[in-house]
Write a structure and sequence with these properties.
heterodimer, A: alpha+beta, 4 strands, 69% helix, elongated, B: six-stranded mixed beta sheet
Protein backbone atom coordinates (compact mmCIF):
# COMPACT_ATOMS: atom_id res chain seq x y z
CA UNK A 1 0.00 0.00 0.00
CA UNK A 2 2.71 2.42 1.03
CA UNK A 3 4.87 1.08 -1.79
CA UNK A 4 2.06 1.59 -4.33
CA UNK A 5 1.37 5.17 -3.34
CA UNK A 6 5.03 6.14 -3.09
CA UNK A 7 5.85 4.66 -6.50
CA UNK A 8 2.85 6.33 -8.12
CA UNK A 9 3.83 9.68 -6.67
CA UNK A 10 7.40 9.09 -7.81
CA UNK A 11 6.14 8.39 -11.31
CA UNK A 12 3.75 11.36 -11.39
CA UNK A 13 6.34 13.78 -10.10
CA UNK A 14 8.99 12.24 -12.34
CA UNK A 15 6.90 12.75 -15.47
CA UNK A 16 5.95 16.19 -14.21
CA UNK A 17 9.60 17.06 -13.63
CA UNK A 18 10.56 15.72 -17.07
CA UNK A 19 7.84 17.86 -18.65
CA UNK A 20 9.10 20.97 -16.90
CA UNK A 21 12.74 20.26 -17.70
CA UNK A 22 11.96 19.66 -21.38
CA UNK A 23 9.88 22.83 -21.49
CA UNK A 24 12.70 24.81 -19.91
CA UNK A 25 15.17 23.17 -22.28
CA UNK A 26 13.04 24.08 -25.29
CA UNK A 27 12.88 27.66 -24.05
CA UNK A 28 16.64 27.78 -23.65
CA UNK A 29 17.11 26.25 -27.06
CA UNK A 30 14.82 28.83 -28.62
CA UNK A 31 16.61 31.60 -26.78
CA UNK A 32 19.99 30.34 -27.97
CA UNK A 33 18.73 30.31 -31.55
CA UNK A 34 17.29 33.78 -31.24
CA UNK A 35 20.66 34.83 -29.91
CA UNK A 36 22.21 34.21 -33.30
CA UNK A 37 20.16 36.79 -35.22
CA UNK A 38 21.67 35.75 -38.50
CA UNK A 39 21.01 36.65 -42.13
CA UNK A 40 22.50 34.59 -44.93
CA UNK A 41 23.18 36.53 -48.15
CA UNK A 42 23.89 34.63 -51.40
CA UNK A 43 25.45 36.56 -54.29
CA UNK A 44 24.76 36.00 -57.98
CA UNK A 45 27.01 33.26 -59.34
CA UNK A 46 28.66 35.84 -61.58
CA UNK A 47 29.65 38.07 -58.67
CA UNK A 48 33.38 38.45 -58.13
CA UNK A 49 35.36 38.56 -54.92
CA UNK A 50 35.78 42.33 -55.27
CA UNK A 51 32.05 42.91 -55.74
CA UNK A 52 31.31 40.71 -52.73
CA UNK A 53 33.82 42.55 -50.54
CA UNK A 54 32.39 45.94 -51.45
CA UNK A 55 28.87 44.72 -50.72
CA UNK A 56 30.13 43.40 -47.38
CA UNK A 57 31.51 46.85 -46.57
CA UNK A 58 28.18 48.48 -47.57
CA UNK A 59 26.20 46.07 -45.35
CA UNK A 60 28.68 46.62 -42.53
CA UNK A 61 27.81 50.33 -42.58
CA UNK A 62 24.08 49.67 -42.09
CA UNK A 63 22.82 50.39 -38.56
CA UNK A 64 22.33 47.40 -36.18
CA UNK A 65 24.67 45.16 -38.15
CA UNK A 66 27.08 43.49 -35.75
CA UNK A 67 29.41 41.77 -38.18
CA UNK A 68 29.72 40.60 -41.77
CA UNK A 69 31.73 37.54 -42.75
CA UNK A 70 32.51 36.73 -46.35
CA UNK A 71 32.43 33.07 -47.29
CA UNK A 72 34.72 32.38 -50.25
CA UNK A 73 33.11 30.31 -52.97
CA UNK A 74 36.33 28.27 -53.42
CA UNK A 75 36.47 27.30 -49.78
CA UNK A 76 32.79 26.38 -49.69
CA UNK A 77 33.20 24.32 -52.85
CA UNK A 78 36.19 22.51 -51.36
CA UNK A 79 34.18 21.80 -48.23
CA UNK A 80 31.24 20.58 -50.27
CA UNK A 81 33.42 18.30 -52.37
CA UNK A 82 35.02 16.89 -49.27
CA UNK A 83 31.68 15.92 -47.77
CA UNK A 84 30.33 14.73 -51.15
CA UNK A 85 33.27 12.99 -52.84
CA UNK A 86 31.17 11.67 -55.76
CA UNK A 87 30.06 15.07 -56.92
CA UNK A 88 32.74 15.50 -59.65
CA UNK A 89 32.11 12.10 -61.21
CA UNK A 90 28.43 13.00 -61.28
CA UNK A 91 29.28 15.53 -63.99
CA UNK A 92 29.41 18.69 -61.94
CA UNK A 93 32.81 20.07 -62.91
CA UNK A 94 32.76 23.81 -62.32
CA UNK A 95 32.02 25.45 -58.98
CA UNK A 96 28.28 26.25 -58.74
CA UNK A 97 28.49 27.89 -55.33
CA UNK A 98 28.25 31.67 -55.24
CA UNK A 99 30.00 33.95 -52.82
CA UNK A 100 27.97 34.38 -49.68
CA UNK A 101 27.90 36.59 -46.62
CA UNK A 102 26.97 35.85 -43.00
CA UNK A 103 25.44 38.93 -41.48
CA UNK A 104 25.08 39.07 -37.71
CA UNK A 105 22.43 41.43 -36.44
CA UNK A 106 22.71 43.21 -33.12
CA UNK A 107 18.98 43.36 -32.50
CA UNK A 108 16.56 40.57 -33.39
CA UNK A 109 13.69 42.91 -34.19
CA UNK A 110 15.76 44.55 -36.95
CA UNK A 111 16.44 41.25 -38.76
CA UNK A 112 13.55 41.45 -41.21
CA UNK A 113 14.13 45.12 -42.00
CA UNK A 114 17.82 44.52 -42.68
CA UNK A 115 17.09 41.41 -44.77
CA UNK A 116 14.76 43.45 -47.00
CA UNK A 117 17.29 46.25 -47.32
CA UNK A 118 20.04 43.80 -48.33
CA UNK A 119 17.69 42.07 -50.78
CA UNK A 120 17.43 45.37 -52.72
CA UNK A 121 21.19 45.74 -53.12
CA UNK A 122 22.85 44.92 -56.46
CA UNK A 123 24.55 41.59 -56.99
CA UNK A 124 22.41 39.89 -54.32
CA UNK A 125 20.62 36.78 -55.43
CA UNK A 126 18.96 35.37 -52.31
CA UNK A 127 18.61 36.54 -48.71
CA UNK A 128 17.52 34.25 -45.92
CA UNK A 129 16.85 35.39 -42.41
CA UNK A 130 16.29 32.97 -39.53
CA UNK A 131 12.69 34.06 -39.15
CA UNK A 132 11.16 30.86 -40.49
CA UNK A 133 13.27 28.50 -38.44
CA UNK A 134 12.88 30.64 -35.37
CA UNK A 135 9.14 30.80 -35.84
CA UNK A 136 8.98 27.04 -35.96
CA UNK A 137 11.14 26.64 -32.86
CA UNK A 138 9.01 29.16 -30.99
CA UNK A 139 5.81 27.39 -32.08
CA UNK A 140 7.14 24.08 -30.84
CA UNK A 141 8.19 25.70 -27.58
CA UNK A 142 4.69 27.12 -27.17
CA UNK A 143 3.07 23.73 -27.80
CA UNK A 144 5.47 22.01 -25.40
CA UNK A 145 4.70 24.63 -22.77
CA UNK A 146 0.93 24.25 -23.23
CA UNK A 147 1.09 20.47 -23.12
CA UNK A 148 3.31 20.55 -20.03
CA UNK A 149 0.97 22.83 -18.14
CA UNK A 150 -2.03 20.63 -18.99
CA UNK A 151 -0.05 17.46 -18.20
CA UNK A 152 1.19 18.87 -14.91
CA UNK A 153 -2.33 19.76 -13.81
CA UNK A 154 -3.66 16.30 -14.69
CA UNK A 155 -0.76 14.60 -12.93
CA UNK A 156 -1.12 16.73 -9.81
CA UNK A 157 -4.81 15.89 -9.54
CA UNK A 158 -4.02 12.21 -10.11
CA UNK A 159 -1.34 12.25 -7.42
CA UNK A 160 -3.71 13.85 -4.90
CA UNK A 161 -6.31 11.22 -5.76
CA UNK A 162 -3.81 8.37 -5.34
CA UNK A 163 -2.61 9.61 -1.96
CA UNK A 164 -6.14 10.14 -0.78
CA UNK A 165 -6.88 6.54 -1.73
CA UNK A 166 -3.82 5.26 0.10
CA UNK A 167 -4.85 7.19 3.20
CA UNK A 168 -8.38 5.87 2.80
CA UNK A 169 -6.96 2.34 3.01
CA UNK A 170 -5.03 3.28 6.13
CA UNK A 171 -8.19 4.76 7.61
CA UNK A 172 -10.07 1.57 6.77
CA UNK A 173 -7.38 -0.61 8.34
CA UNK A 174 -7.46 1.52 11.50
CA UNK A 175 -11.17 2.20 11.63
CA UNK A 176 -11.62 0.37 14.97
CA UNK A 177 -8.75 2.26 16.49
CA UNK A 178 -10.09 5.58 15.21
CA UNK A 179 -13.61 4.75 16.36
CA UNK A 180 -12.31 4.05 19.86
CA UNK A 181 -10.14 7.16 19.81
CA UNK A 182 -13.20 9.24 19.03
CA UNK A 183 -15.35 7.48 21.64
CA UNK A 184 -12.88 8.10 24.45
CA UNK A 185 -12.60 11.76 23.49
CA UNK A 186 -9.60 12.17 21.19
CA UNK A 187 -9.75 15.51 19.39
CA UNK A 188 -10.08 15.44 15.62
CA UNK A 189 -6.60 16.87 15.30
CA UNK A 190 -5.22 14.04 17.39
CA UNK A 191 -6.75 11.61 14.88
CA UNK A 192 -5.75 13.66 11.85
CA UNK A 193 -2.15 14.58 12.52
CA UNK A 194 -0.57 11.09 12.23
CA UNK A 195 -2.48 10.47 9.00
CA UNK A 196 -1.47 13.81 7.52
CA UNK A 197 2.12 13.07 8.47
CA UNK A 198 1.76 9.71 6.72
CA UNK A 199 0.55 11.47 3.57
CA UNK A 200 3.41 13.97 3.76
CA UNK A 201 5.97 11.18 4.16
CA UNK A 202 4.49 9.34 1.15
CA UNK A 203 4.69 12.56 -0.86
CA UNK A 204 8.22 13.44 0.19
CA UNK A 205 9.63 9.93 -0.33
CA UNK A 206 7.91 9.74 -3.72
CA UNK A 207 9.35 13.12 -4.65
CA UNK A 208 12.82 12.00 -3.64
CA UNK A 209 12.48 8.90 -5.83
CA UNK A 210 11.29 11.12 -8.69
CA UNK A 211 14.33 13.33 -8.22
CA UNK A 212 16.67 10.33 -8.48
CA UNK A 213 14.85 9.17 -11.63
CA UNK A 214 15.16 12.62 -13.17
CA UNK A 215 18.86 12.88 -12.29
CA UNK A 216 19.59 9.52 -13.93
CA UNK A 217 17.33 10.25 -16.92
CA UNK A 218 18.67 13.79 -17.25
CA UNK A 219 22.29 12.62 -17.26
CA UNK A 220 21.46 10.08 -19.98
CA UNK A 221 19.63 12.65 -22.11
CA UNK A 222 22.39 15.23 -21.66
CA UNK A 223 24.99 12.64 -22.64
CA UNK A 224 23.09 11.82 -25.84
CA UNK A 225 22.26 15.43 -26.65
CA UNK A 226 25.88 16.52 -26.35
CA UNK A 227 26.73 14.32 -29.32
CA UNK A 228 24.07 15.90 -31.56
CA UNK A 229 24.71 19.18 -33.40
CA UNK A 230 22.70 22.17 -32.12
CA UNK A 231 21.38 20.14 -29.22
CA UNK A 232 24.24 21.03 -26.92
CA UNK A 233 22.25 24.04 -25.83
CA UNK A 234 19.21 21.89 -25.18
CA UNK A 235 19.50 21.88 -21.42
CA UNK A 236 17.93 23.78 -18.59
CA UNK A 237 19.66 25.87 -15.98
CA UNK A 238 17.82 24.16 -13.08
CA UNK A 239 20.32 22.95 -10.49
CA UNK A 240 19.76 19.53 -8.88
CA UNK A 241 19.24 21.20 -5.49
CA UNK A 242 16.50 23.49 -6.81
CA UNK A 243 14.87 20.56 -8.57
CA UNK A 244 14.93 18.47 -5.37
CA UNK A 245 13.54 21.33 -3.31
CA UNK A 246 10.68 22.02 -5.72
CA UNK A 247 9.79 18.32 -6.12
CA UNK A 248 9.84 17.56 -2.39
CA UNK A 249 7.80 20.66 -1.65
CA UNK A 250 5.27 19.57 -4.26
CA UNK A 251 5.28 16.03 -2.85
CA UNK A 252 4.57 17.35 0.63
CA UNK A 253 1.73 19.55 -0.59
CA UNK A 254 0.21 16.70 -2.62
CA UNK A 255 0.57 14.27 0.30
CA UNK A 256 -1.00 16.61 2.83
CA UNK A 257 -3.83 17.52 0.44
CA UNK A 258 -4.54 13.87 -0.34
CA UNK A 259 -4.69 12.92 3.35
CA UNK A 260 -6.88 15.86 4.15
CA UNK A 261 -9.45 14.94 1.51
CA UNK A 262 -9.80 11.39 2.85
CA UNK A 263 -9.82 12.31 6.53
CA UNK A 264 -12.45 14.96 5.98
CA UNK A 265 -14.76 12.40 4.46
CA UNK A 266 -13.96 9.78 7.08
CA UNK A 267 -14.46 11.98 10.13
CA UNK A 268 -17.48 13.62 8.50
CA UNK A 269 -17.11 16.87 10.38
CA UNK B 1 -27.93 15.62 35.08
CA UNK B 2 -29.38 14.21 31.86
CA UNK B 3 -32.39 15.83 30.29
CA UNK B 4 -34.00 14.95 27.00
CA UNK B 5 -36.54 17.53 25.88
CA UNK B 6 -38.98 16.86 23.07
CA UNK B 7 -36.50 14.91 21.02
CA UNK B 8 -37.37 13.45 17.62
CA UNK B 9 -34.98 11.70 15.31
CA UNK B 10 -35.97 11.28 11.71
CA UNK B 11 -33.68 9.57 9.21
CA UNK B 12 -33.38 10.82 5.66
CA UNK B 13 -35.44 7.90 4.39
CA UNK B 14 -38.35 9.15 6.50
CA UNK B 15 -38.04 6.54 9.25
CA UNK B 16 -38.66 8.01 12.69
CA UNK B 17 -36.30 6.47 15.24
CA UNK B 18 -37.57 8.63 18.11
CA UNK B 19 -40.88 10.49 18.47
CA UNK B 20 -41.08 13.49 20.79
CA UNK B 21 -39.30 11.79 23.67
CA UNK B 22 -38.84 13.72 26.92
CA UNK B 23 -37.25 12.37 30.08
CA UNK B 24 -34.89 13.40 32.80
CA UNK B 25 -32.37 11.32 34.71
CA UNK B 26 -30.97 12.80 37.91
CA UNK B 27 -27.34 12.56 38.92
CA UNK B 28 -26.36 9.21 40.38
CA UNK B 29 -29.32 7.26 39.02
CA UNK B 30 -29.20 3.73 37.59
CA UNK B 31 -31.69 3.33 34.74
CA UNK B 32 -32.48 0.65 32.20
CA UNK B 33 -33.68 1.50 28.73
CA UNK B 34 -35.68 -1.44 27.40
CA UNK B 35 -37.52 -2.24 24.21
CA UNK B 36 -37.26 -4.59 21.27
CA UNK B 37 -34.67 -4.26 18.52
CA UNK B 38 -35.33 -1.10 16.52
CA UNK B 39 -37.32 0.56 19.30
CA UNK B 40 -34.82 3.44 19.48
CA UNK B 41 -32.69 2.47 22.50
CA UNK B 42 -29.32 2.83 20.75
CA UNK B 43 -30.45 6.01 19.03
CA UNK B 44 -31.31 7.53 22.39
CA UNK B 45 -27.86 6.66 23.76
CA UNK B 46 -26.09 7.94 20.63
CA UNK B 47 -27.73 11.31 21.16
CA UNK B 48 -26.16 11.49 24.62
CA UNK B 49 -22.58 11.09 23.40
CA UNK B 50 -23.25 13.17 20.29
CA UNK B 51 -22.70 10.38 17.81
CA UNK B 52 -25.80 11.85 16.18
CA UNK B 53 -27.98 14.92 16.37
CA UNK B 54 -31.76 14.98 16.86
CA UNK B 55 -33.98 16.43 14.15
CA UNK B 56 -35.85 18.24 16.91
CA UNK B 57 -35.45 18.93 20.61
CA UNK B 58 -32.62 19.41 23.09
CA UNK B 59 -30.31 16.95 24.83
CA UNK B 60 -28.71 18.18 28.06
CA UNK B 61 -25.82 16.20 29.55
CA UNK B 62 -24.23 17.50 32.78
CA UNK B 63 -25.74 20.92 32.23
CA UNK B 64 -24.60 21.26 28.62
CA UNK B 65 -26.83 21.28 25.56
CA UNK B 66 -24.93 18.70 23.49
CA UNK B 67 -26.94 19.51 20.38
CA UNK B 68 -25.33 22.96 20.41
CA UNK B 69 -21.74 21.70 20.66
CA UNK B 70 -19.35 22.35 17.80
CA UNK B 71 -17.35 19.44 16.35
CA UNK B 72 -14.32 20.68 18.30
CA UNK B 73 -16.18 20.51 21.60
CA UNK B 74 -17.51 16.96 21.19
CA UNK B 75 -14.26 15.25 22.33
CA UNK B 76 -14.43 17.14 25.63
CA UNK B 77 -18.03 15.98 26.19
CA UNK B 78 -16.93 12.38 25.61
CA UNK B 79 -14.14 12.65 28.17
CA UNK B 80 -16.83 13.08 30.81
CA UNK B 81 -18.65 9.96 29.62
CA UNK B 82 -17.81 6.27 29.72
CA UNK B 83 -19.24 4.22 26.88
CA UNK B 84 -19.53 0.42 26.76
CA UNK B 85 -20.82 -1.73 23.89
CA UNK B 86 -22.04 -5.25 23.29
CA UNK B 87 -18.99 -6.04 21.12
CA UNK B 88 -16.50 -4.58 23.69
CA UNK B 89 -14.53 -2.65 21.01
CA UNK B 90 -11.14 -3.65 22.36
CA UNK B 91 -8.13 -3.45 20.04
CA UNK B 92 -7.16 -7.08 19.28
CA UNK B 93 -3.45 -6.37 18.73
CA UNK B 94 -3.02 -4.64 22.08
CA UNK B 95 -3.03 -6.31 25.49
CA UNK B 96 -5.35 -5.19 28.26
CA UNK B 97 -2.95 -2.65 29.75
CA UNK B 98 -2.17 -1.16 26.32
CA UNK B 99 -5.87 -0.96 25.47
CA UNK B 100 -6.44 1.18 28.54
CA UNK B 101 -3.26 3.20 28.05
CA UNK B 102 -4.34 3.94 24.47
CA UNK B 103 -7.57 5.53 25.71
CA UNK B 104 -5.60 7.76 28.07
CA UNK B 105 -2.84 8.64 25.64
CA UNK B 106 -5.28 9.91 23.03
CA UNK B 107 -6.51 12.51 25.49
CA UNK B 108 -2.95 13.52 26.33
CA UNK B 109 -2.50 12.01 29.79
CA UNK B 110 1.01 11.85 31.28
CA UNK B 111 2.69 8.41 31.75
CA UNK B 112 2.57 8.65 35.55
CA UNK B 113 -1.11 9.55 35.46
CA UNK B 114 -1.77 6.73 32.98
CA UNK B 115 -0.19 4.14 35.29
CA UNK B 116 -2.15 5.35 38.30
CA UNK B 117 -5.51 5.49 36.53
CA UNK B 118 -5.11 2.09 34.87
CA UNK B 119 -4.20 0.57 38.23
CA UNK B 120 -7.36 2.00 39.79
CA UNK B 121 -9.61 0.94 36.91
CA UNK B 122 -8.26 -2.63 36.73
CA UNK B 123 -8.61 -2.95 40.47
CA UNK B 124 -12.22 -1.79 40.25
CA UNK B 125 -13.15 -4.41 37.62
CA UNK B 126 -10.99 -7.14 39.18
CA UNK B 127 -8.65 -7.69 36.23
CA UNK B 128 -5.31 -6.58 37.69
CA UNK B 129 -3.88 -10.09 37.13
CA UNK B 130 -4.90 -10.04 33.43
CA UNK B 131 -3.16 -6.85 32.35
CA UNK B 132 -0.75 -8.70 30.00
CA UNK B 133 -3.54 -10.68 28.29
CA UNK B 134 -4.75 -9.96 24.81
CA UNK B 135 -8.51 -9.76 24.13
CA UNK B 136 -8.57 -13.16 22.37
CA UNK B 137 -7.04 -14.76 25.48
CA UNK B 138 -9.86 -13.47 27.69
CA UNK B 139 -13.40 -14.74 28.20
CA UNK B 140 -16.36 -12.64 27.08
CA UNK B 141 -16.99 -11.51 30.64
CA UNK B 142 -13.37 -10.50 31.07
CA UNK B 143 -13.43 -8.60 27.81
CA UNK B 144 -16.51 -6.67 28.91
CA UNK B 145 -14.81 -5.93 32.27
CA UNK B 146 -11.83 -4.68 30.28
CA UNK B 147 -14.09 -2.43 28.22
CA UNK B 148 -15.69 -1.12 31.42
CA UNK B 149 -12.23 -0.49 32.87
CA UNK B 150 -11.41 1.53 29.77
CA UNK B 151 -14.63 3.53 30.22
CA UNK B 152 -13.64 4.17 33.86
CA UNK B 153 -10.13 5.53 33.32
CA UNK B 154 -11.52 9.02 32.70
CA UNK B 155 -13.60 8.95 35.92
CA UNK B 156 -16.81 9.49 33.95
CA UNK B 157 -19.81 11.17 35.52
CA UNK B 158 -22.08 9.18 33.21
CA UNK B 159 -21.58 5.57 32.12
CA UNK B 160 -23.51 4.58 29.01
CA UNK B 161 -23.80 0.87 28.24
CA UNK B 162 -25.45 -0.29 25.01
CA UNK B 163 -26.44 -3.98 25.39
CA UNK B 164 -23.42 -4.71 27.62
CA UNK B 165 -24.55 -8.28 28.29
CA UNK B 166 -25.77 -9.11 24.80
CA UNK B 167 -22.91 -11.54 24.13
CA UNK B 168 -22.66 -13.05 27.62
CA UNK B 169 -24.20 -16.02 29.45
CA UNK B 170 -26.65 -15.29 32.31
CA UNK B 171 -24.14 -15.70 35.18
CA UNK B 172 -21.54 -13.52 33.52
CA UNK B 173 -24.23 -10.98 32.59
CA UNK B 174 -25.22 -10.74 36.22
CA UNK B 175 -21.57 -10.15 37.25
CA UNK B 176 -21.28 -7.35 34.70
CA UNK B 177 -24.50 -5.71 35.88
CA UNK B 178 -23.31 -5.91 39.48
CA UNK B 179 -20.07 -4.27 38.44
CA UNK B 180 -22.09 -1.48 36.81
CA UNK B 181 -24.06 -1.13 40.03
CA UNK B 182 -20.80 -0.79 41.98
CA UNK B 183 -19.78 2.01 39.65
CA UNK B 184 -23.20 3.61 40.19
CA UNK B 185 -22.82 3.36 43.98
CA UNK B 186 -19.52 5.21 43.69
CA UNK B 187 -21.37 8.14 42.16
CA UNK B 188 -21.65 7.74 38.40
CA UNK B 189 -24.97 7.94 36.61
CA UNK B 190 -25.42 4.61 34.78
CA UNK B 191 -27.65 4.08 31.74
CA UNK B 192 -28.02 0.56 30.40
CA UNK B 193 -29.86 -0.30 27.21
CA UNK B 194 -30.81 -3.97 27.27
CA UNK B 195 -33.40 -6.54 26.38
CA UNK B 196 -32.24 -8.96 29.04
CA UNK B 197 -35.43 -9.33 31.11
CA UNK B 198 -33.86 -11.39 33.93
CA UNK B 199 -31.39 -8.69 34.77
CA UNK B 200 -33.96 -5.92 34.68
CA UNK B 201 -36.40 -7.89 36.84
CA UNK B 202 -33.71 -8.77 39.39
CA UNK B 203 -32.29 -5.26 39.71
CA UNK B 204 -35.58 -3.42 40.40
CA UNK B 205 -34.25 -0.15 39.04
CA UNK B 206 -35.84 2.59 36.96
CA UNK B 207 -37.09 1.23 33.63
CA UNK B 208 -37.58 3.43 30.57
CA UNK B 209 -39.39 1.56 27.81
CA UNK B 210 -39.36 2.56 24.16
CA UNK B 211 -41.58 1.13 21.46
CA UNK B 212 -41.13 2.14 17.81
CA UNK B 213 -39.52 5.37 18.89
CA UNK B 214 -42.19 6.33 21.43
CA UNK B 215 -41.57 6.55 25.16
CA UNK B 216 -44.24 4.14 26.45
CA UNK B 217 -43.21 3.64 30.09
CA UNK B 218 -40.99 5.29 32.68
CA UNK B 219 -41.27 3.37 35.94
CA UNK B 220 -39.20 3.44 39.11
CA UNK B 221 -38.33 0.04 40.59
CA UNK B 222 -39.75 -1.45 37.43
CA UNK B 223 -39.56 -4.80 35.70
CA UNK B 224 -38.92 -5.69 32.07
CA UNK B 225 -42.59 -6.31 31.29
CA UNK B 226 -45.09 -3.66 32.27
CA UNK B 227 -46.47 -5.14 35.50
CA UNK B 228 -49.17 -2.51 35.93
CA UNK B 229 -50.98 -3.12 32.70
Amino acid sequence: MAYASISTIALSLGVLGAFVLVALGANNFAASQIGKFEIAVYMNTSATRAQTDSLARAIGKLPDVKSVTVRSREEEWAKFKKSNPNIESAGLQSNPIPFSLDVKVAQASRTTYLANKIRAMSGVNTVRDGREILGRVMAIARVVRGVSIAGVIVLLITAVFIISNAIKLTLYARRREIQIMKLVGATNWFVRVPLIIEGIVFGAVGAFAAWILLRIGGAYVAGTAARLPMMSRFSSDVTPATLALVLILLGIIIGAAGSFVSIRRFLHD
Amino acid sequence: MISIEGVSVEYQNGVRALNDVSLSIPKGEFAFIVGSTGSGKSTLLRLLYREMLPSKGRVIVSGEDVTALSANEVPFLRRKLGIVFQDFKLLPQKNLWENLAFALRVIGAQPKEIRRRIGDALNMVGLTHRCDSFPHQMSGGEQQRAAIARALVNHPTVLIADEPTGNLDPDTSWEIIQLLEQINIRGATVLVATHDSHIVDRMKKRVIQLDSGFLVRDQHKGTYQDSES
